[in-house]
Design a protein that fits this description.
This protein is an all-alpha fold. It is 84% helix and 0% strand.
Length: 68
């Protein structure tokens, strides 16, 4: 179990699910939001693993994309 939780796609998936649950508690579209955020978390984690990025590298990449 420890090995599974250290993989970036799993971390991203769990983060997305946590955010989705928080939005659900606040009352947004339930199923659509849950699937979108879980998928986004999985995509970020797998992108980090594929390109061997740290979380800080990913944040810097996203910031550079948003400021162009």
């Amino acid at each position: 179990m420890k090995h599974l939780l250290k993989q970036p796609p799993v971390i991203g998936l769990l983060t997305g699910l946590l955010i989705a649950v928080l939005f659900l508690v606040l009352g947004f579209w339930r199923t659509l939001l849950l699937l979108f955020l879980a998928g986004a978390g999985w995509w970020c984690g797998s992108y980090m693993q594929k390109h061997q990025l740290s979380p800080n590298d990913l944040i810097l990449l996203i910031k550079s994309m948003l400021t162009k």
